[in-house]
User: Fold this.
Amino acid sequence: MSSKYLEDQEEKTVVIVMTSGPSTPHRCATPFYLGALLSSMDAEVKIFCTMEAVKLMEQGTPENLSAMAGGKRIIDFIRDAKNAGVELHVCRPALPGYELVPQQLIPEVDSVASAGDLADLILSADRLLFF
Amino acid sequence: MEFHGCEFRAELYYDRECQIWVRKEDDGTLTVGMTDISQSIAGKILHVRVRRPGTRRPKGKPVATIESGKWAGPVPNIFDCVIVHANEDVLEDPNLLNIEPYEAWIARVQPVAPVDVALQEMVTGDAAFALYGERCVRDDIHCERGMR
Assistant:
């Protein structure tokens, strides 16, 4: 389906809103994989974790979670995305519902942001994806 | 030469994370490929897409993207360059990168600056081997060559 060559496109901003968390591990790798790929194609990619995805950002959770039995850990998908240039943001209003404070989040998180920040991202992004 | 089973070729140039190798060509172009370390981390490579020939790629903008079953990401770019052409054999059969990472090059590029200036941030020889070993130890990397 895809061409062997990457076209030189105008840079685009992509926001991935991540709502899946540890209760559905099979949904937790693809957003980071896709984010890494999009970033490698010159897109400016921001992943915003809200709802149960904030639980995925808790230290000790992605280090011990895989999308499939015996598979690559979610933390390694997250690190691949970060290495490719993806920014990672966590929804502050969602933290109390999971009894979390910002200090408990993995160091890969770039910022703890407000719902207003997410709203700004949604309104300004060229592409918006929900997982 | 090897470290943790990862092949290393002293005559090539490497980025400081030893993700890619670069070879000088007689015509002033540079050939870019991925190291044994990188192909081992990626696992079986399923897709390779290279920027269209003629495209300028500033430093930091990837030359190509790689997809395997468990890894997706860039082929990093260390210097400002223009894509001359891609290795059609690798585009058709990306698994070649797992089987012969130092023969199966990805792209040939023309650096915008003179070759020696373009390669200033890369390392070669013993200094590169030291970095290569450090990376293997730091990330506990042990290489395996791909099979058909």
